[in-house]
Amino acid sequence: MKKELSNMTKEMYERCGFEISNLKIEEESREYEACQFELNSLKIISRNAKITPKKIGQFVTFWKRSATGPIEPFHATDHFDFYVVNVNSKDASGQFVFPKSVLIIKGIVTYLKKEGKRGFRVYPSWDTPTSAQALRTQQWQLNYFFVLNENNWLERAKALYVI
């Protein structure tokens, strides 16, 4: 996991002038290389998405352990600014940088009486969803996405990490 974060730091965060601090590895979600950290004082929750063999897109978890034991979706009152999802294919790497406010609107983060999600699919620009729902999801998600080393990726990354 530290290697993955280090690669992302070298490739992107450092080139953007961002500094990582307070890195906390989430052992329970090691499979998704889960961690939390601060990026120039912004609170980040980060996961790597996984390619699944039978569905287009990639799957990522987004839960926390409740005080009483079971897992639960993140809540609007949880202290984070962005949920970052790293995606990879054999030919490309990219990153979704979802602001908490967008995840609340999309029903992924629990707000008031509407429970959020414990996991969801992401659709990078190189995927071609076939269902109408997946296409709609990809359309809004791509507003928060960039492909590493693609034209203007550095400017795009800097623009996404703004509250």
TrEMBL record:
It comes from the Bacteria. InterPro entries: MepB-like, MepB-like_sf. It comes from Aquimarina intermedia. The lineage of its organism: Bacteria, Pseudomonadati, Bacteroidota, Flavobacteriia, Flavobacteriales. Gene3D superfamilies: MepB-like. It holds the Pfam family MepB-like. This is MepB protein.
